[in-house]
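Model: You mentioned two targets. I'll fold them one after the other.
Researcher: Yes, keep them separate.
Model: Target one:
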Amino acid sequence: MEIKKGIAVSPGLAIAPALVLDAQEFRITQRRVNPSDVPHELELLQKAIVGSIGEINLLRAQVAQKHGEETARIFDFHLGILNDPLVRSRMEQALAEQNFSAAYAVSMEMRRHVRDFLEINDQYFSERVKDVYDVERRLLRHLVGGRKEGLSRLKSEAIVVAHDLTPSQTASLDRTHVLAFATDAGGLTGHTAIVARALGIPAVVGLNDITADASPGDIIVVDGNRGVVILDPDEHTLEEVRQQQEEHIRVVQNLSEFRSLPTITRDDYRVNLLGNIEFPNEVTECIANGAEGIGLYRTEFLYLSREREPTEEEHYEAYVNVLEMAGERPVIIRTLDLGADKFTQARTREPERNPFLGCRSIRFCLRHLNIFKRQLRAILRASVKGNPSIMFPLITQLTELRQAKMILHDVMEDLEEEGIKFRRDIPIGVMIETPAAAIKAATLGREVDFFSIGTNDLIQYTLAVDRGNERVASLYTSTDPAVLRLIRHVIRQANRLKIGVSLCGEMAGQPEYALLLMGMGLKKFSMNHRAIPEIKQIIRSTTIEQAKNVARQAMRLETDWQILNYLLEETRKVLPGFSCSSGH
C-alpha cells in the first residue's frame, strides 16, 4: 500500500480500478507538400477548424445545460483561439508560403502559443497551456485521425489516472462509470479543476508521478477531501473507506427526513448552516442539501471562466441570478479575490516573487478602482432583488477597510445621482484570514456588521505553509493550537461586539471540528453543500453544553495531533462509525 499526497480540487471519496491514460501525442514531422497540393491542405485546415468549432459548441451547450453558463464559458478560450483571424492567417501563411502540411502548420502555431504563455511566468497563463494543447489535439484528430480515449463510453467503473486532463476531457467524462480522477499535474485554479467541482467528480491533482506508480486495473482510492490517493490499499484500509462511503450515503439519505427541520442541538441551541458557491447554479444544490443561505459567493470565477474581464451587466446578471434563486435567504457576496494564484486574463502583469504575499484580493481592488467599482455597482444594483451582504477579503489594516467602505459609498452616491435603486443598508463584513486581522478583530469589528473566518488562508498564513504545495502538506493543519486560539479570539470579539460571525473555510464542513467550533461560540457555518447533511446530523445529535466542554478540553492540549485525536474520539461518541476526513 502506498499513500500519495496531492492537491484536493474537488471533494468526494471513490474506490475503483485505475484506468491509466497514456498522453495522446501526435508525432507531427516537418512535412512539406507540393505547391499544387496547397489548396487541398488549405481545405483540410478549414474543415478541421469548422469541425472543431462545431464539437466545442456542442460540448459547451451540453455543459451549459447541465452545469450553468459560467462553467460553460471555460470553452470560450478554445473558441477564441479557433476564431482568431491572426491564428488562422499564420497557419494559412505557413501553408501558402512555406508549403507546410496542414498538420504541421497547426502544430507549429499551437506550440508558438504555448511558448508565449510559458514565457509570461504567470500561473494563470501556465494553466492555459493545457487548453492550447486541447485545441491542438482536436484539430489534429480532424487532420490525421487518432483514437479518442472513449472516456464518455466506458463499460465499467474506473478511476481515471493521467498526467493531466484537458477541460474537454473532464467535461466529457461518463459520470456513471468515472468515479474520480487523479493527475500528475494541475492546480487549484485550472479549468480542469473548475469543471471537476462543477460536475461533482472527486479529484486530486499535482501528484507528480501517479501515472508511473499506478498500474492499469489496480484498485486505488481517491480522497478528494484530503487530497490523498491510496495505491493498492490493504483490506483494512478498504474497509475503512467503504464504511466512510456507506456512512456518507446513509447521512445523505437521512437528510430528506430532517433537512427542513431547524439546525438545533438537543438543548435547543440554534445554528445556521450556509453554503459556499462558485457558480450561480450551485444555489439550488445548496438549498436542496439544507443550506439556509449562501455564506460565501466567490465572485472571482466570473473572471477565471472567460477570456476577458466581465462587464458590469455580466456581474449584475450573475448576482441577480443568485439572489433570485436564494429568495429571502441571505447571500454573502465576497468582492474579488484576484491575485496570488488567480489572475484576470486581459491584463499584463509583471510576475511577483511571492504572489500570496503580494498584490491580491482587497489590495488588488484598491489599486484597480475601475474593476472594483464595476463590481460594487453591480452588487448594489442587484441588492434590491434579494438579501445580499458585501464582504471584503484579506483585510489586514483598518485603513484598507476604511478605503474600501469609502469607495463603496462613492459608488452609492453615483447610483443615487443616476436614479438607480439599491439597498443603502446593505450589510458590510470582512474576511478574517490573516493573523493580523484576527488579532485586530476588536478594532475591525467596530466598523463592520459581520466577520467571516476564512480558515484556508488563516491556517497557511499562521503556519507559513502553502496549502497548495504537496511538499509541505503535512504541516498544514487545522488543529494547531495557534490557529485555534486565533479562531476563538475572533469569535469572542464578534460576540462581545454583537456582530455576526461565521466560518467559511474547509474546517466548517469537516465533521471533526463541528463540536469544537460550536463550543467556541460559533453559530454560523458555511461550507460545500455536500458537507451539510453530516454537519447537521452532528449538531442535532449533541448539546451545546457538551460542545462547550469539548472546546474547553481541546484548548488545554498542547499539540495538533493530541487535539485532532481528541476531537475524533468525541465526534465518534456523537456519530458512531465516523472516520476522519480532514487532511493532517
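Model: Target two:
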Amino acid sequence: MTEAFRLAFDPFVPLPLLIVLACACLLIWGAYLVLRGRAWLMRALTFLLLLLALANPLWVKEQREPLKEIVALIRDRSESMRFAGRDEAAETAYNALREKLEADDSVELRVAETDPGADGTDVYAALLSAMADAPRERIGGALIVTDGQVHDLPEDPEIAEQLGPIHGLIVGEEDEQDRRIEIVSAPNFGIVGDRASLTVRVEDDTTPMVDVNVSINGEALRSRRVPTGVDAVISLDIPRRGSNLIVVEVPAGANELTLANNRTAANVSGVRDRLRVLLVTGEPHSGARLWRDLLKADPSVDLVHFTILRPPHKQDPTPIEELALISFPTRELFLEKLQDFDLVIFDRYRRINVLPMGYFDNLARYVADGGALLVAVGPPYADRFSIYRTPLASILPVRPTGEVVEHEFKIERTDLGKRHTVTASLENEADWGAWARYVGGRTLSGETLLEADDGAPLLVLDRVEKGRVATLMSDQLWLWARGYDDGGPYSELIRRTAHWLMKEPELEEELLELHSEGDEMVAQLRTLDDRPPRLTVTDPDDVMVQAEWEEKAPGLFEARTPGPRLGLYSARAGDNTTVALNGPANPREYVDVRSSTEVMETLAETTGGSVQRIGVGDDVSLPELRWVSGRNNAAGRGWVGLGRRDAYAVKASQATPLLPGFLGAGLAILLMMLAWRREGR
C-alpha cells in the first residue's frame, strides 16, 4: 500500500455553467480594459478568485494498492506444430516462460492454447479468449509460441493495439522445404460416363515438374505430369452414380516436413443423365406389360421395347404396307448401338430366326466388357429353342434342366438372400403370394437369392468379368403385380435387381465405407462372409493401424480407430479399399506448413512487439523478458519487452478544500475594496 497526493476539483455548479461564467468574466474584464479601467489587475484577480471558489479545488490524499500487469501466454497446438521437432521446442519454451512469469508477483498470467482439431491455427481467437475480461489499462502484452502459420489474424491490426505489445516466438527452422498439392476447384456434380475437370496446384520450390497420381474410388488412373507453382487441369471420367472420391497425390520430395499434404481429395456426385434400357419380349404373355410399366414409371429411364408378335417362320398374307408395325432393327440395336444401353432385358425370349448367333456373341462380349443383362425366362428356356443354346450360355449362371414345373409354390429367400443387398431389405417372405410356374435349372455360378419351397433356384445373380447378369427362372412375377394371393414386393425386387446390375454403389454386397466421427474414424463393412477380413486403416502420415470388427447385423460389421488428424485416411479389408477425408478437402493447416516469421510481422509491429525465432527441438533460445514503459518498440536484440502500466486501485481517499467558502469570500471582498480604492484616486 502506498500514499499519493493530487489536486482535484469538485465544482459547486455544473461544469458547462462554470465555463459560461468564465467566458462572461473574460468578456467583462476585456470591456473594462477597453474603457481604460485603472484597477484591471485587481478586477482580474477578483474574477479568478470567484471562479476558483466555484470550482472548489481539493487536495486529495489517497491510499493506493498497485495492480498486477496482465500478460497472456498463448501456445500453438495446431497440426503443423507436430512436424520437425516444433512441438518439443514449444513445450520447452512454454514451460520456461510460464514458470518465469508465475514467479513474478507483479504479473497476472493468462494462458490459452489453440484448438488442435480446428481447420487452421486460431491464435488470435485464443488471445481474445484469454483477455476477454482483462481491463485494457492493465494489459502488459502477449507472448505467442507458434510456428508462425496463423490463419485468423485481423485484417486491421490496429484493433489489437490495446493487447500489445504482442511478441511472436517462432519455433522451426528457416528455409524449410515441403512439397504439397491442393485442389483449387472441382465440380460438385458430374454426368456418369462424361468427363469432369478439376484444377490442382502443386507447390515445390525445388523442381519445375512433378508427377501427379490420380485415383477414383480407389482405382488408380494414369498419372499426369504437371508444372509446379501454377494451376493445372486434370480431366477424368465419372464412373458411377453417387459419391465418387477423387484422390490426387504427389510423391515425397526432398526434406519433406510431412506427407499429409502430398495427398488431397474431392468428392464428385455422379448423376445419370438418362438410363437407357433395351427390353425384348419374345412373345406376348400376361407379364409382358409388367416390365414395360415398371420401367416407364421411372422418368429417368429411356426405354426401347420390342415385342415379337410374329416370328419369321410364321406366314401372314397381310401386305407389308398395311401393317402398323416397324421392322425389328436387329443390326442397329445388337451390333451398332448395343454399347449405348445400360441394361438389356430378355423377357421370355425364344431363340428364333430374329437374332443371328453372331449377335448373341456380341451381347456376351457386351456383358464381359461391363454391360448388364437380365433374363426373365419362361417355358421356352427349357426347350430346344432356349437362348441357353446360344453363345449366351458362357455368361448365364443357370443351365435349364428341360423341366417346367407348374403348380403353386411359395418363394423363399436363401440364407445368402437374407444377407444380400438386393433382397435383404424386402418384407418378410411369409407374406408373399404364391407363383404357379418355374423352369427347372441347375445353378452353375453366381449367388442364388430366391428359391422355390422345394429348393429350385428362382433368382440368381452373377458377375461376368466386368459385367453382371441376373436370371429370373419364372414368368410369374405379374401375379404379385395383380395382387394374387396378397401379392408381393415385385416393384422393389426388380428395381433393386436392376440397380445392382448397373453397379449402383448402395447395392454392392461387398462394400467398405469409412467416415469420421469426432476424433474417431468409423469403418463399416457389408459382406456376405461370416468372418470378415482384417481391417487396416492408414492415417495421413501413412501410419497403419489394425482394428477389430464388431458385428452390428447379419453381414454388417463396424470398427473404430483413433482419427484426430486432419487429412485423408484410407482403409483396406481384404480386396475392399476405400478412402475418406477427416475435415475439409484442403485444410488451411496444411496449405503451408513451413515455419514463418512473415505472417505475424504486421501485427507485431503495429502493437509494438516483435517476431523472433527461438529454435527447434532441444535447441531453444528464449529472449530475455524486460519491463518497459509505453507500447512501442518493446523489443530488441535478444530481449522482448512487456509494458509496465502502473495500474492501481484506490483503497482510501481524503480530500481537503484549498479555498473554503469564508476564505474565498473574504479575499474577494478585499480585492474589490482595493479595486475601488485604486479607481477612486
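Researcher: Noted. Anything on target two?
Model: The domain at 511-582 is CATH 2.60.40.10 (Immunoglobulin-like).
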